[in-house]
Design goal:
single chain, mainly beta, 7-stranded mixed sheet, 4-stranded antiparallel sheet, 61% strand, globular
């Protein structure tokens, strides 16, 4: 089992920045993809940014240039979000894949006020 805990969400004004963190624990050996998704009110969950199995970073088009994904070891991934706007409001989820099983965190709320 893999447990994912997100942190760093909150309320920010339009144009501001936030940095989200996702810490994985449990059986983390063999995690081969890890990244961020978000779900806006009334919408489906969508990709934000992720590290693929090959280790490369993949971004949704609307996040390129504003968001940056990084990691500092095998079990912590970050999402730096800049130039936030109201359309970035939503719950941000961390996702990890290990052995063909997908794990999700509980999510962290990001609210951007205009």
């Amino acid at each position: 089992q893999v447990q994912l805990v997100e942190s760093g969400g909150g309320l920010v004004q339009a144009g501001g920045s936030l940095r989200l963190s996702c810490a994985a624990s449990g059986n983390i050996f063999g995690i081969n993809a890890m990244g961020w998704y978000r779900q806006a009110p009334g919408k489906q969950r969508e990709l934000v940014a992720t590290f693929t199995r090959s280790g490369s970073a993949n971004y949704a088009d609307s996040m390129k240039g504003r968001f940056s994904i990084s990691r500092d070891n095998a079990n912590t991934v970050y999402l730096q979000m800049n130039s936030l706007n109201s359309q970035d409001t939503g719950v941000y989820y961390c996702k990890a894949e290990r052995g063909g099983v997908v794990y999700w965190g509980q999510g962290t709320q990001v609210t951007v006020s205009s």
